[in-house]
Amino acid sequence: MAAIIPTQDMDGSDTSKNRFNIFYILGISLISALGGYLFGFDFAVISGALPFLQKQFALDAYWEGFATGSLALGAIVGCLIAGRVSNRYGRKPGLLLSAAIFAISSLAMAFSPSRDLFIVSRFCAGVGVGMASMLSPMYIAEISPAHLRGRMVAVNQLTIVLGILITNLVNYSLRNHGEGAWRWMFGLGFIPSALFFLGAMSLPESPRWLVKAGRKDDAQSVLKKIGDDDFSASSLQDIERSVQGSGKTKFSDVFGKAVLPAVLIGIGLAVFQQLCGINTVFNYAPKIFESIGASQDDQLLQTVFIGGVNLVFTIAAMLLVDRLGRKPLMLIGSAGLALLYVAVALMLATHSPSVSWFLLAAIGIYALSLAPVTWVLISEIFPNKIRGEATSISVLSLWAAYFVLVFTFPPLFEKLQDRSFYIYAVICVIGFLFILLKVKETKGKTLEELENIMLKN
């Protein structure tokens, strides 16, 4: 095991009297975050495959939207499953189940002989996506010390964007491999799925779940691997106090008067992250660039550029989230997107190739802010005793909003074209006001400290 070393802030000053096993924390965070990679894969693969699927299954605007959005419908079911599994059996079994679903659904999509079976298979893939999108950031938040938590949870977002970029590169490389190229695009997802399953088998269980399950000694053992004896003892004491008397929880508990404000904020953040509109660019980049006369090769090449920008700015977000804070980044993102969408609409109206620069800028500002920070906040703001249920409901709301967005975009874009982006600009202004007035800063606080803050407000 790697040596336990004192942690320092980004300027080199000590942030804690405790000593932590940084390499161990990073290692288990990366393994858990492989769920994020598969999230990115299933999210992005449809963009490159859609031109082939349109020809293979004669998709009109309705079925194009439904084939894309079926992932979100499955993700909603996955969130419900993940909430129950993670609370009853632990976070680790939930991660293993999501990995198995990823692997099976990748092959099912690749070998689908008809439109309906493809959509059912993509729905099943969505179940795995929904489980991973909830469990990976929650697990990382629960095993990370407070001053590292933002960066560690952002690792999950980093693997998501790596999944998007690598998938876009693979899609682009397969573009000239015939009408069946889309089958390879989906089938290759089996490889990272298998790696995720094997890696998840080595993960320790979340110490917070172990305490809640009455396994105090096991929780202490995990905490000692994360940090020194002082950290282990103080963390165990804080966790025990936060779950004391909580007993068994159910979904109705998240609507209790004390916790409802935090739950509503979580739902609001999740819905805004999707309805802000940026995923129309991720999922429908070929359609958008086709509208200004780009060839199919150029359309797929643009998805590679999008993935690259997404990666660079996600890395920047990891460096800033624990330094600048969550709320400032969210405000920058919502305001920046509102302005950029107006520019995108103007460029599309004149069929200007310059629209690509504004779309890439929108991707960059989103990757710096709303994309990673929303997941960080959702993993932080809920009390320990209802974290599983509240996170499940928030992520479920996120996927419901994603379905609405991607299902409505094809017919909306057919009718309104460039004016579609004015709608998303207005939503971003509303999101800015919501964050400004309702969201509190969580930087540098333990989950138990945040629980006390949220319950007092």
Q: Could you tell me how far the N terminus lies from the C terminus, measured between alpha carbons in angstroms?
A: 42 Å
Give the beta-strand count: 2
Helix segment tally: 20
Major beta sheet summary: 2 strands, antiparallel
Proportion in helices: over 70%
Provide the CATH topology of the largest domain.
Answer: Growth Hormone, Chain: A
Mean of all residue-level pLDDT scores: 83
Instruction: Bin the strand percentage.
Output: under 5%
- Cα-based radius of gyration, to the nearest Å: 21 Å
> Strands across the major sheet, in which order?
1-2
What's the number of structural domains? 2
**Low-pLDDT segments, ≥5 res:** 1-16
- H/E topology pattern: EEHHHHHHHHHHHHHHHHHHHH
Examine the secondary-structure arrangement and name the CATH architecture of the largest domain.
Up-down Bundle
Shape estimate = globular
CATH C-level category of the largest domain? Mainly Alpha
**Class of secondary structure makeup:** mainly alpha
The CATH superfamily of the largest domain turns out to be MFS general substrate transporter like domains
Task: Please outline the helices and strands.
Elements (H helix, E strand, L loop, with lengths): L4 E4 L5 E7 L1 H11 L1 H24 L3 H28 L2 H20 L4 H29 L2 H28 L7 H7 L2 H11 L6 H6 L3 H11 L2 H15 L16 H16 L3 H12 L5 H25 L5 H24 L5 H14 L1 H11 L6 H30 L3 H19 L8 H10 L1
Antiparallel strand pairs: 1-2
Helix pairs in contact: 1-5, 1-6, 2-5, 2-6, 2-7, 2-8, 2-13, 3-4, 3-5, 3-18, 4-5, 4-7, 4-8, 5-6, 5-17, 5-18, 6-14, 6-17, 10-11, 12-17, 12-18, 12-19, 13-14, 13-18, 14-16, 15-16, 15-17, 15-19, 16-17
